[in-house]
Amino acid sequence: MKNAAVLPERAGASGQDTVPDRDPADGRTRDRVAQLLLQYGSATTSELSEALGLSCAAIRRHLDAMLSDGLVEAREQPVRGPRGRGRPARIFSLTESARESFPHTYDDLASAALRWIAQHGGPAAVSAFAAAQVAALEERCRAAMREAGDDPIARAQALAGALTAEGYAAGASAIASGGQLCQHHCPVAHVAAEFPQLCEAETQVISRLVGTHVQRLATIANGDGVCTTHIPTRRVPHRSGTDQPDHDMTDPIVRTAR
Fold first, then answer.
1. Tens digits of per-residue pLDDT, 46-103?
2. What are the distances in angstroms from CA 110 to CA 29, 121, 151?
3. What gap in Å lies between CA 199 and CA 197, rounded to an integer?
4. 29 phi and psi, to 5 degrees?
5. 185: phi then psi, degrees, rounded to nearest 5
6. Neighbours of 114 (CB within 10 A)
7. What is the biggest distance separating any 2 CA atoms in the chain, rounded to whole angstroms?
8. pTM here?
């Protein structure tokens, strides 16, 4: 099958070109257009036409489709001197969402930065960096937990909702020995696999937010499917002299997940 990008343009009832049904060839050509716009920063139809060896009409058809999909944006090309007849040329560039679709190396960059910190400042510097990174997360979660009260399990349930809003897909449940907070997604799992200080800083945040000592039982960074944190209940003296949990372990499981 011939490349759809070089087939004659179809004319609509108004005489203007219309965008035909898309096929894999169209997708490949638009990928090439996007790559050039990423490389150039911005370009006109004629510049893209020359670079790709396609007609301006074909390039305009692909740009119109990309405009409709929110992948490119256009602005008028500045004109120096007297403006000639006809419509001014437009300059096209990628939108932010289109740029985000290209591969990134954020994990590699973060790992390299932490290696540099470790080399020049030692493990303590990495821990300090990790604590600083989760400080803003802690404040946002704390604000979302203001109505949770003092009970650690209730606070864990509120924290699960706050973490879910941050993209962690978290859930909290009551179990026989207290409570359990599960995070089904970790945004920094690949980096944390090399630098467990990130997990440790997050665990300390959970402890401060729920108001009691907690214990990490599993982490995604360590190869587990879920980050699991055990939250013991507070124990109060019972009339018989034995300690009893101050939380009803018959409470149903409460889960908050995205």
1. 999 999 999 999 999 999 999 999 999 999 877 665 555 656 789 999 998 888 788 7
2. 33, 16, 36
3. 5
4. -65, -40
5. -145, 140
6. 20
7. 97
8. 0.59
